[in-house]
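Inverse folding, one chain.
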């Protein structure tokens, strides 16, 4: 008989399936365990996907609009345009945009000036940098910097200045004329207004012609090259290519030469804070699996105690401790697979259709509010409750809720939920080793 057990291990699955089919799989504890695993996986996938949407939106806005993947600074005077054309031909480089930055005071229709950061770029900046063009939505006018007096403003900055495309504003450069009088201001024509979706840029950014920026600020606005790579994760490879190309041009990074910096260094503090925030959120939400695992652990221990006679019989017939334990682990395997699968399926369904999900949720809540207002009006005590919005544009600076599913994170969440059930069942079945066939069957 022992040889049968050893030569035909499929009996483990057969016995485990019999246990489940005889009612164990549909017991309340198993159902709650499956629902617990499914809820945990569902919640984690949706929340992490929305968090990814917000964080990746911030990161990509910073990289595409502000810093680029690489920044090349401390360049020789008046060499940025020539170097940008040369570096743009490198295999690893997608685009190169030269720019100069200066701090200014802007004055629109109101007498009080407002501080802003003005970036001087070439008139063909959107053609040179498709990533920038994809992130700037021109909501009024056009991105026209062909004339020296043209300026393009962020939407929130234009609103604070009370101007729109076609209006005139006054610009005072803090970098070059700090402490000067009113006669130092220059009049500019607002050619366009952009919206990036990032509040800081929309509130305090503007674009002018790069030559105008050089004339306005002089040496205070040093040229910088914002370099976009074909793959930003291969930044070290791109930096090596650029250093070799600059060395052939006679430029050296040592002894006070140029400075080349990766996006990992330039935005280290901000990106590190986002990574820590995401990790802590993941850990806190994953605690639900601990609760579900404890429930499975207690349920399995109770099952082991209830089936002591059957365990003793199997042991007496030659089944090993590990084989008998696997019978009960199979229950945890089924719970983890069913719960994780359901949570993964519904989590991806909601995360990939997050706009429809929140629209449905808001519609249901607003229908209830309308009904409540109607009933209260009939009773003579009208409540006048307003419409409900999960992310109201009046409170949050977003037009839609972002969501981005990263496949390996979704797989990791499923695996985490699945393993919590399997490990709980394995540890709970440890009592099998203490079962002595002679003691159990002595009075049978």
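Residues assigned per position:
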């Amino acid at each position: 008989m022992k040889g049968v057990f050893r030569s035909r291990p499929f009996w483990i699955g057969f016995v485990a399936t019999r246990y489940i089919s005889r009612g164990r799989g549909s017991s309340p504890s198993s159902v709650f365990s499956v629902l617990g695993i499914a809820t945990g996986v569902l919640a984690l996938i949706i929340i992490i996907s929305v968090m990814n949407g917000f964080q990746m939106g911030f990161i990509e806005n910073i990289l595409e609009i502000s810093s680029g993947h690489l920044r090349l600074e401390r360049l020789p005077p008046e060499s940025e345009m020539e170097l940008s054309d040369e570096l743009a031909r490198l295999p690893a480089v997608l685009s190169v945009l030269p720019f100069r930055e200066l701090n200014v005071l802007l004055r629109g229709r109101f007498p009080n000036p407002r501080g802003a950061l003005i970036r001087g770029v070439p008139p063909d900046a959107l053609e040179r940098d498709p990533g920038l063009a994809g992130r700037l939505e021109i909501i009024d006018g056009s991105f026209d910097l062909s004339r020296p007096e043209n300026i393009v403003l962020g939407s929130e900055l234009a609103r604070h200045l009370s101007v729109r495309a076609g209006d005139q504003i006054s610009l005072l450069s803090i970098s070059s004329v700090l402490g000067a009088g009113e006669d130092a201001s220059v009049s500019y024509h607002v050619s366009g207004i952009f919206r990036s979706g990032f509040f800081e840029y929309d509130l305090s950014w503007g674009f002018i012609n790069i030559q105008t920026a050089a004339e306005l600020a002089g040496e205070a606005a040093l040229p910088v090259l914002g370099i976009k790579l074909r793959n930003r994760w291969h930044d070290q490879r791109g930096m090596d290519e650029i250093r070799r190309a600059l060395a052939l041009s006679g430029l050296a990074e040592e002894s006070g030469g140029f400075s080349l910096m990766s996006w990992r260094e330039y935005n280290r503090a901000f990106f590190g804070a986002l990574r820590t925030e995401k990790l802590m959120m993941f850990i806190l939400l994953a605690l639900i699996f601990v609760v579900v695992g404890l429930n499975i652990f207690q349920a399995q221990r109770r099952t082991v105690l209830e089936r002591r006679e059957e365990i003793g019989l199997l042991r007496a017939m030659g089944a090993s401790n590990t084989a008998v334990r696997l019978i009960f682990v199979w229950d945890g395997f089924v719970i983890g697979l069913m719960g994780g699968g359901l949570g993964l399926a519904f989590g991806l369904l909601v995360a990939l259709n997050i706009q429809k999900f929140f629209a449905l949720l808001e519609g249901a809540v607003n229908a209830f509010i309308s009904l409540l207002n109607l009933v209260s009006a009939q009773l003579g005590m009208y409540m006048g409750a307003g419409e409900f919005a999960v992310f109201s544009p009046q409170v949050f600076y977003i037009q839609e809720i972002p969501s981005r599913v990263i496949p390996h994170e979704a797989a990791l969440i499923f695996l985490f939920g699945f393993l919590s059930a399997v490990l709980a069942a394995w540890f709970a079945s440890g009592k099998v080793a203490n079962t002595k066939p002679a003691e159990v069957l002595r009075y049978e």
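The chain has 18 helices and ten strands. The chain has two domains: 2-56+289-440, 75-257.
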